[in-house]
Amino acid sequence: MSGTRFAPDRGLTSRMVATMFMIGLLYVVFVGALFVLLRGAWPLVAVIAGGIFIAQFWFSDKIATFSMGAREVTEQEYPELHGAVDRLCALADMPKPRVAVADSDVPNAFATGRNANNAVICATTGLLRRLEPEELEGVLAHELSHVAHKDVAVMTIAGFLGVMAGFLTRMGLQFGLWGGFGDRRDDRDDEGLALLVVIAVSAVVYAVSFLLTRLLSRYRELSADRSAALLTGRPSALASALTKVTGAMGAIPTRDLRQAEPFNAFYFAPAFSARQSAGNLLSTHPTLEQRLDQLGRISAELGR
């Protein structure tokens, strides 16, 4: 990766560019449809949605840490955690992000922020309690790789665009359709038809955005595993951490897992119970078997 010692991943870069291009193209069509269907109301809707998007992107680190119940911690509070991040940043030759801890028994970690200078890396208390130092460094290296590869910012943008489709539609219907037509029967027929078209277009936009971000999310997790293993030179430690974290999910109360599940796309491992399967089209992560198999191949390559 340019600017750091993390291994570059052209496959990840090409997928991020393709995802943003496809979503951007999709939204050009979506905004064009709103322009035709919602008449004069769409500029107000677009300005409001654009303002919310800019705010979310600019303050994505603060929004994410607040939503996940994390707080920034000092070196005096968590010296081992800060020490691990210091060592990895020195090894990767990258700026040190802010360090946070979430008081949760769900063993996990995440990174967020629009760039390396505004990034936050967070671990839960459940993760810190369960992992050995080498395993923790593997997880932290995985999260730092997301920052170095800039895929955190791409996921923030791509994920928000899907939400914006629904928001634009609701606002457009409120300000454009319900108050934009007359009382004649023909106008009511037009209103009903426009309503159906807007709902259909919004559903398609959301579905395609959802699938594109899921495909990118699974690849970026494999890329982060690979980059972390190569940086630390200890793929076995990362594999051990993955096995521990995934196994521990089965002992976490279902209520806690459900609270964490909306943030799966940003987590080191998905917050699923042992009875759930992450190996499907809608999953944010590749399966544990896929991740361990990749780490096993890297370990064999490093051994040679």
From TrEMBL:
Major localisation: membrane
Annotated Peptidase M48 domain residues: 76-296
GO molecular function: metalloendopeptidase activity; zinc ion binding
Keyword Transferase: no
Transmembrane segments: 12-35, 41-59, 152-173, 193-216
Entry's EC annotation: 3.4.24.-
GO cellular component terms, semicolon-separated: plasma membrane
Localization (cell): Cell membrane
InterPro entries hit by this protein: HtpX_protease, Pept_M48_protease_HtpX, Peptidase_M48
Cross-referenced Gene3D superfamilies: Metalloproteases ('zincins'), catalytic domain
Cofactor annotation remark: Binds 1 zinc ion per subunit.
Keywords: Cell membrane, Hydrolase, Membrane, Metal-binding, Metalloprotease, Protease, Transmembrane, Transmembrane helix, Zinc
Membrane topology field: Multi-pass membrane protein
Active site: E143
Positions with a binding annotation for Zn(2+): H142, H146, E221
A Pfam family recorded for this sequence: Peptidase_M48
Cofactor(s) needed: Zn(2+)
HAMAP family with a match to the protein in the record: Pept_M48_protease_HtpX (MF_00188)
Family per record: Belongs to the peptidase M48B family.
Protein name per its UniProtKB record: Protease HtpX homolog
Originating organism: Streptomyces monashensis
Lineage: Bacteria, Bacillati, Actinomycetota, Actinomycetes, Kitasatosporales
Originating gene: htpX
